[in-house]
Design brief:
Elements: E1 10-15, H1 21-33, E2 37-42, H2 52-59, H3 77-80, E3 87-93, H4 95-102, H5 109-115, E4 121-125, H6 129-133, H7 135-146, E5 150-151, E6 155-158, E7 164-168, H8 172-183, E8 192-197, E9 202-203, E10 209-210, H9 217-228, E11 232-237, E12 249-252, H10 256-266, E13 272-275, E14 282-284, E15 303-305, H11 309-314, E16 321-328, H12 332-342, E17 347-352, H13 353-356, E18 361-362, E19 364-368, E20 371-374, E21 378-379, H14 380-399
Parallel strand pairs: 1-2, 1-3, 3-4, 4-5, 8-11, 8-13, 11-12, 13-16, 16-17
Antiparallel strand pairs: 6-7, 9-10, 14-15, 17-19, 18-21, 19-20
The structure holds cytidine-5'-monophosphate.
Length: 400
């Protein structure tokens, strides 16, 4: 029998009258692309910045602006629209809108349906710096937070009015990611997760080094997934230009020795260790402090093996729950299972070098004491969520 598909999450997106309203169009597109069901409701002022037709085209649904809209049979848009919504997000939220909600006003469609909701309300303020810092506005924001409304941002930076400071709406991508995280089950609430990510860089001389083509994408995707699952997350990252997911603590390192030292400094504080980094197997025994000059001779480097960070952690007297990764170019499952046993890991994620390195999607196997589970090819973020869910389940079993 085929499993029933869960219904898409419903987002009621409120748009109020600020210049950032044009960014709500992009936000609508991101939600729709990710499979959310989006219903847009606009304040009258918002329609002066962007027309309802834009949101109608992007969401595929009629847009409502008026409390007395007769397209809804019972003329109760304020009751019908929030019904069944999993979340209301108002982006941009003006100072005036926040004033209204903080005081329980219900004099237009958007404020009325916020009052009549039985789902979480999130607001993304957007306004001029001085309006944001205006004491009554800050009082309203504090009141909203006290009432359980989640206030996202604002960001700081350049503003449409030419000033610089706090008041910019968070970018659509950041709001989208927050909502995605909001909907993830909190499997790891209260636990602390340490992740190593990216390559390491072993110095040869002042400018050269040995590294590998790990991008760090999988490690950072695991970090985001663990954060979404409610964990406190630290990433120890080798050289990578990837942005740190908001809310993750990042420690940058260069060599495998630095990574080992950083892991050792953190390991007593954590519950789960996920070792995603492609740690160099060897380091250069006598790196030169100066740039080695080129000449016609053969240059010989002496390499010594690096300590295995993961095996060290898993071998501690009271180790955290350890998850390892293995990238192999042949005999994947056989080599990966040998590695899992040798390093004494309850869970190991195995993938083919050819499909994993640098790509945005991946195909992996989860190896644990119960056997081997293949996950379908998917974007790394989706794979990371599945790995975190599986790790959290095993972690709970190990604890009990
Ligand atoms: O033995 P191999 O390098 O394939 O093992 C991969 C796993 O071990 C990965 O989880 C990797 O992060 C970890 N590892 C480590 N320290 C090393 C080598 C690998 O933590 N020196």
């Amino acid at each position: 029998m085929r499993e029933a598909q869960p219904r898409p999450k419903r987002i009621l997106l409120g748009v109020t009258g600020g210049v950032a309203a044009y960014k709500a169009a992009e936000l609508t597109r991101l939600f729709v692309k990710a499979g959310y069901d989006v219903q847009v409701a606009m304040s009258e002022a918002a329609t002066r910045f962007v027309t309802p037709a834009t949101f109608q085209a992007l969401s595929g649904r009629a847009v409502f602006t008026d409390l007395w809209d007769n397209r809804i049979d019972n003329h109760m848009a304020h009751i019908d629209l929030p019904r069944g919504a999993d979340l209301i997000l108002v982006a941009p939220a003006t100072a005036d809108f926040m004033f209204k909600i903080a005081h329980g006003a219900a004099d237009d469609l958007l404020s009325t349906l916020c009052s009549a909701r039985d789902c979480p309300l999130l607001v993304a303020p957007a306004m001029n710096r001085q309006m944001w810092e205006n004491p009554p506005n800050l009082r309203n924001v504090a009141q909203l937070e006290q009432d359980g409304v989640i206030v996202l941002g604002p960001d700081q930076g350049e503003q449409a009015c030419g000033e610089t400071g706090f008041g910019r709406m968070l970018e659509p991508e950041a709001l989208f990611e927050y909502v995605e995280a909001f909907f993830q089950p909190k499997y790891l609430q209260g636990s602390r997760v340490l992740i190593t990510a990216g390559p390491t860089f072993e110095r040869i001389d002042a400018v050269r080094g040995i590294t590998n083509s790990s991008s760090g994408k999988m490690g950072f995707a695991i970090a985001r997934a663990a954060l979404e699952a409610g964990a406190e997350v630290t990433v120890i990252a080798g050289p990578t230009a990837l942005a740190t997911p908001a809310g993750v603590k990042r420690i940058d390192v260069e060599s495998s020795k630095d990574m080992l030292a950083a892991v050792n400094a953190e390991v007593a504080k954590i519950d789960i260790f996920v070792s995603v980094a492609a740690v160099a197997d060897y380091y250069v025994l006598n790196p030169s402090a100066q740039k080695i000059k080129k000449d016609a001779h053969i240059l010989t480097l002496e390499l010594a093996p690096n300590p295995d960070i993961l095996a060290n952690v898993a071998g501690l007297a009271a180790p955290p729950f350890c998850v390892g990764f293995a990238a192999e170019s042949e005999n994947l499952l056989e080599y990966a299972e040998q590695k899992r046993r040798r390093k004494k890991l309850p869970l190991l994620v195995a993938n083919q070098v050819q499909s994993a390195i640098g790509a945005d999607d991946n195909e992996v196997w989860l190896l644990d004491d119960q056997g081997q589970h293949k996950l379908p090819r998917a974007p790394k973020q989706e794979i990371a969520r599945t790995i975190v869910r599986h790790a959290a389940k095993l972690y709970r079993e190990y604890q009990s």
